[in-house]
Each structure stands twice: as C-alpha cells, then as structure tokens.
Design goal:
The complex is a heterodimer of chains A (about 200) and B (about 130). Chain A has about 200 residues and is mostly helical. Chain A has ten helices and no strands. Helix content of chain B is about 45%, strand content about 15%. A four-stranded parallel beta sheet of chain B has the order 2-1-3-4, with helices on both faces. In chain B, helix 4 (about 100-110) packs antiparallel against helix 5.
C-alpha cells in the first residue's frame, strides 16, 4: 500500500477494487455478523460500496482529498447501521487530513488521524473486537515501512486475532462471553478493504 | 414553534412511531416531534439521512433533543448532527435516557416552554446511574 509520492493513487481503480472485494465476500460478512451481531453487515457494506461505485465518475473526478471525503460521505449515507459512520469517518478523515506533500511518513500520520477518528466515533479502542483491531496494526505496519503484501498479511492476521476476543462495543457486546470464538465482521471487512488496496499497490 | 423539538430514533420504525404516538397522546401537539426508524432498505437499523430529515421536521430555534435506542442509533445520530454542522448542530443534543420514557419526559418538559438544557436534564434523570 505504497500511497507515497512516487505514485498518484487513482481513486476510481481503488474504489472499484474495494467494491469488488466487499461484493465477493458479502455473504461471508453477513454470516459473521449473524453469529454475534444483527446479521446485516455484508448487505450494508455492499449497498454502500455499490452506491459509491455508481458515482465513481463524479467522485474520482474530484481532487483526491475531496474524492475521499465524497467517498466517506456516500458511505455514511448509504451503508446504514453503525458501519456507515465508522467506515465513512475513516475515508472522510483521510480526505480532510490528506497531506500536501504525501510522503510515506506524512501519510502514516494521516492514516493515524483517520483511525483515531474512527475510534472516537465508535467510542472504542484497541482490543475490543472491532475494526480498530485491524486498522491500528495496519497503520503501524504502514508507518514501519512494510510492503503492500506484508501489510495485507498483517490485516488478515489481525482480523483472525479478533476471534478469541470478547466484544466490549457494538451489538456483539450484549453477548458478553458468547462473542468469543467468532471473528468480528467489521474487522474482516476492514482486512478485505486493506487487501484490495494492497493488491492494487502490490506492484508499485 | 418556540418549544424545543423532540426526535425519536429507533432501529425499528414500529418502536419509533409507537413512541411518538405515546408522546402525542400524553403530551399533545405543543412540541415539534419527528421520528425515524429502520434502514434505507426497509430492515431494522438507523439511517443518517433519515435522522437528518427527522431533525429538519422537528426543528425549533429553541433546539432539538434526540432520543435513541441502541448504540448504532446513537452513532448515527452523532454523525447526523455533525453533518448538519454549526450553528444548528450547537442546538441539538442526543439524550442519554431510555427511548420511551425519555421521549415522554423530555416532551413534557418541552411543552412547558423549558430550555433545551432543562429538557435534556429531565431526560437524563432517567438514565441508569
């Protein structure tokens, strides 16, 4: 995921890659969410990313920071559930905090702000069986200069690591100990998005 | 209307509408009132755009108090308030109170011309300590 100065990320390709990944795994995400949530995560995420895909031209015609904000806003308005504001906040903050000189260090800082914004939105933190348990390790791996493939592997392993965790936030927290033994759906969808982006930047 | 408005946000349109019915019957028509519930696909859930529209319908220059049910309703309501932005966002408060009791008590307080702060404080008295 080398969103560094040597590349100009083309937002339309990235959006299509993310939408494809969510669409291909929508049933799996819904099944994960049925185990410990309310069972609509896959449908919600697919609806959101298809809505974004439908406006691909308009969104990617904007300067990148504005495009990211538009992407986030669209997700807020269309995903539904709590995932809309959470994933929407991630992209909106990326857009808002996009550095004027996008070096890797500056982008790592931007990514940190975006993940912190998601944490604030969800009033959650690391270790509570949420998407943050993927996003924070991904941010650290990116900041540490890992390759795209390594970052994707970190994301997958981090999603897997939510299985033994007990949910503290979100619908799954009502289940208490019974949330243990299932992967968090938001962590899984975060890992899918990271891998979709990493695959695209893998050859850079 | 100069009284504080009340917005009811539930994951279920039936819960939201039923709560609004109770407010209307118990408190009357002196309070701007709007509800929303369910996601855009017609299932259970909450929608930021629906919440923004409900705030619009219940808008009062005295402010709006929002009553929510479960976590996602709160997160989506916070997002809706943020997207509405200042200066109106400064006059919108999400109450920490049970949705049905909170809506009835907040509306009762609002119907007497109480300020947003007083309305919210009344609802908060119902929150578990």
């Amino acid at each position: 995921m080398s969103l560094a100065s040597e590349t100009t990320p083309s937002l339309d390709v990235l959006i299509a890659a993310m939408a494809d990944a969510i669409a291909a795994h929508a049933d799996e995400l819904t099944a994960l969410d049925q185990a410990i949530g309310d069972g609509d995560h896959g449908l919600n995420m697919r609806r959101g990313f298809e809505a974004v895909r439908a406006e691909l031209g308009t969104i990617s015609a904007k300067p990148l920071p504005d495009g990211l904000k538009a992407l986030g806003t669209k997700l807020v308005m269309t995903v539904g559930g709590a995932s809309g504001p959470l994933f929407g906040t991630l992209f909106m903050t990326l857009g808002k905090e996009w550095p004027s000189g996008p070096t890797r260090a500056a982008l790592a800082e931007t990514l940190k702000k975006a993940v912190d914004a998601v944490a604030a939105r969800g009033k959650s933190q690391l270790g509570q069986k949420t998407m943050l348990d993927v996003l924070y390790p991904v941010q650290e791996a990116y900041a540490a200069g890992k390759s795209a493939a390594e970052i994707a592997a970190v994301a997958d392993a981090a999603a897997e690591a939510t299985v033994p965790m007990k949910a503290i936030r979100g619908r799954a927290s009502f289940l208490g100990d019974r949330s243990i033994g299932h992967m968090d759906a938001g962590a899984r969808s975060s890992a899918l998005l990271v891998r979709a982006l990493a695959d695209h930047f893998g050859d850079v | 209307m100069s009284n504080v408005g009340i917005v009811i946000v539930s994951h279920s349109p039936l819960v939201a509408e039923g709560t609004a019915d109770m407010v209307r019957q118990m408190v009357g028509d002196e309070v701007p009132l709007a509800w929303c519930g369910g996601n855009d696909a017609g299932g259970l859930g909450t929608s930021v755009s629906a919440i923004m529209a409900a705030i619009e319908r219940a808008w009062s220059d005295a402010g709006v108090a929002i009553l929510v049910d479960l976590g996602g309703a709160e997160t989506n309501s916070e997002m809706a308030v943020e997207m509405i932005g200042p200066p109106r966002a400064d006059k919108i408060v999400i109450c920490n109170a049970p949705i049905v009791e909170g809506a009835v008590m907040a509306a009762t307080e609002a119907s007497g011309g109480a300020s947003l702060k007083e309305v919210v404080a009344t609802a908060h008295e119902l929150a578990p300590a």
